[in-house]
Amino acid sequence: MILLAVVVATALLLYLTLSLNVFPQMYQSIEPRRPEAVITDVSLSTPVINLGQTFVISVTGTNRGEEADMQIVSAGFPNLTKAENIKVLEHNFAQTPILIDVGDHIGSEYSGNERRVNALYPSVEAFSRPWAGGSTYNIDLQVKPEAEGKFVVFVKSIAFPHSWNGAHWPHEGISDYQKELVEVYHIQVTKP
Amino acid sequence: MNYFSQSPAQDIISSSSRFLAGYVLVSLGVLLAAGGGSWDINNHLMNKPETFFAPPHAVLYSGAGAVVTGAIILFRTSRHIGKIIRPIKLVVAGMLMLVVAGPIDFVWHSAYGLDGLLSPPHFVLVSGMIASSVGALAGMVYHGSMAFREPRLSSPLILIGMLPVWLATSGMVDMFSLPFSHTGYFDFDPHPVLGVAVATLAFPFLMSLVACSSSTLAGRRFGMVSAVGGAFIATNMLTSIVPNDALLATIPFYAANFIPFIAADALLSFSRSRILGYAAGAIIGIAFFTLYYPLITYTFDKVLEQKTIWPSLIALRYFQMIGTVLPLVTVPAAALGILGAVASDKLILKNKAL
Lengths: 192, 354
Prior knowledge:
The structure holds two protein chains of two kinds. By secondary structure, chain A is mainly β. Chain A has one helix at residues 2-28; strands at residues 37-44, 48-50, 55-63, 70-76, 86-91, 98-100, 105-107, 116-118, 123-128, 136-143, 149-160, 168-169, 174-175, 181-190. Chain A is elongated, with a radius of gyration of 23 Å. Helix content of chain B is 76%, strand content 0%. Chain B starts with 7 loop residues before the first helix and ends in a 5-residue tail after the last helix. The chains are: A mainly beta, B mainly alpha. Chain A binds chain B through residues 1, 4, 7-8, 11-12, 14-15, 18-20, 23-24, 26-28, 30, 32-33, 67, 69-70, 94-96, 111-114, 129-130, 160-161, and chain B through 46-48, 50, 245-246, 249-250, 252-253, 256, 259-260, 262-263, 266-267, 270-271, 279, 283, 287, 290, 306-308, 310-313, 315-316, 318-320, 322-323, 326-327.
């Protein structure tokens, strides 16, 4: 009986020591993965269109770092008031791109879904989950501006886990309402 | 002369082997379905599938197919001998739930796209898995008892019968504790505190109940609790850890879960003391937080930090919280482990399962 008690107590002590000390110390030193989000190409079908016409924007993103659990390529349209003026023509992302309409809940500050804000303008979020290092995905969008003048497009890409500055693109520029940096592209919309 | 008619003795032997085949098929089917279900949860976490036709679903519904076949064998054999025992009624009820859940799940996916862990079809599916596996185990014990004149089963049958019950019931506890049920259409997520309470109370109870019952059915033979625990560890490792590259390094940690099972096995096998039996239940119960790694990270994080846990960060987050969580849950887990041992005594020794 004493031998049994000693064996069981030793086993329990070993299990607790391993679970509370040895393994936590071992695994807490694991570094989070470092995916690197990059937009390699943005092309607009035309620099000038007449109001009522559509144009096509093609965005290509890649991950130059380690595998991302998820990487997003986002194209925002601050001059639009409704997402129905955006149409996904073609894409090769692993999941179906999401159309974000004004007022929809959307993540911010590179936090994923932790800090949600209401969308101020329509956008498209194309993503692959996971996004392997070295893989490239592309999306073609057809957009119909609603008014004359300068029509602006905000493009960005964010990889998760957002473990370092290279996990988002661009690294400098203007900040959108999600407090995330964007690269600005535009076309001119003229009277028909 | 009819060369094809069997003597009554041959008839009994033939019926017994058909019953055994039916029970084994039902149990293996639930094992496959539960394994597929666990793989499916991980697939949703990592790959966000958008269609019903995903490989884990194929495994899950292949398992359901095996359950249907096994249940038909059991039902037909019972009708042949003119008596349908309660465990077989339970198997058939569970099988019907599985059959109903499949098409409803497909329709649900078609209507609402990506579904959460807790949804009406999933609830029916897991309920069916629990009913079938419990029925199959009880049926094996019923037929085993006729031979041994007490609740006994051979080691392979204990393993085949217990593991599906354990996995399917764990799936039900997961549904009511993991925060994976908030979709664009419905929010069936449990309240974070409720999720933690369900996990902390139900898992230790279930683990202890399964371990102590396995030991009793094996006649307190050393090795049975370790084998059942080891099989659960191996299944969870294959379905929840191996598919995620970022968790592969934590396999040695997960394998250490074997230690409490060996300790409890020794207590249950080398002592007839009821108190030490309860101590074995407590030891098993304490191990719930490490045994249900990695998914339990999401349940507890919902109360502690509510950060987005990306699949590659599960291990990091888990080992940040284990030092806080494990000491806090030890007492309730041990208490529920003892309760599991008491329940096992009542269920098996008093033969109420039958």
